[in-house]
Amino acid sequence: MPVWRFIETPPWNIANRLSEFPYDTEWCVIHPDGKKVAQKLEPMPPETQTIFKGDRVLVLKGQSKGKVGLVASVVKMRRLVYVEGLNPRYRRSDSNDSLIAEENYLKINEEVALIDPSDNAPCQAVWRYDTKGNRVRVSARTGHLLPLPVAARILDDLTDPEVVEAGDKDTPSEVVTKQTVDFISTPRLETFEEELTRLYAPLDKRKRFPTYWY
Question: How buried is 57 (Cβ within 10 angstroms: 0-12 exposed, 13-18 middle, 19+ buried)?
């Protein structure tokens, strides 16, 4: 049984961030207190994620119920969020007997909800497309637009596509977006290797010598 450690220090395990991680597997989940639980981890692909770091949310359960705060981090692999300064848990300091408060995790769509800016009430978010074809997040209750925070554009590898610059080893965008499949022309009866040879192999300009049979 594979082991996955539930750690809370960012950037966490890489399995937290990859949406294509194999979730349909029985895991031995190790919690911060050392407790081991055998369970399957539910996936949260990008098309279903509606809460991101920097979102303004309302806590629905726990000792911070009814309070509003900003999402400090999202743990995709466990469908959990941490809200800045809310839902605290306390531990004793190693140096003295003083108590230290830390944010405890909250379950997405169960213990937190987004704030609808039209009436400042909690709401569930859904993805829709506007008149220009852009994918936007709206309130399922009022249909009001829910703007995405800046951190929502951060990719799974923790890079910002609007800030990062392409290097020498990066694939150019024109190569990535180039259409390489022709859906209009009549398909050719050739293998994949024959197609690559036809498109990219140099032309053979040699002339065949005549063959004589005696």
Answer: buried
